[in-house]
Amino acid sequence: MNKDTLSHIGRFVILILVQTFILNHINFLGWLNPYIYIIFILLAPLNINKSLFLLLSFILGLTIDMFGDSGGVHAAACLIIAFFRPVALRTVFGLSYEFQTVKLGNTGFGEKLAYVTLMVLTHHIVLFSLEIFNFSHILLILKKTLFSSLFTIMITMLVLVLFRRNDS
To answer: Transmembrane residues, as ranges (predicted)?
Structure first.
């Protein structure tokens, strides 16, 4: 097992612990939560085996669901953004992604923000649509998606800037 693999395992475990024991208890204004555990999916290596990546993403979401008793909505949302990630990377980074030369730590703030925003919005719209599961509450779904996304994007960008590595 190399240093990068250990780093990814550590990130996986730490993000789950921080999410379940700290962030899930914030509930700012009664409904606003940051969901930074998806940083694991955002920062996964580009060359990771796709089946393994989907499995790890599912396990990540399922673990959050088990701690939060949320019935699988996080697992579904994680699986969807894991499937969507290549599209988001291609959209934001273009040829750099095609040639596997994207290193998130070396990208500009604007590109990083666009990528994080696209992934977080996708995750949150799926998460809250499944959680509420009633189109008569579409305004509530949109409100939770918008405000939780803004909160998550802010904290995710802060984490990415504070814990930046040049080779990630």
So the answer is: 12-29, 35-60, 72-93, 113-133, 145-163
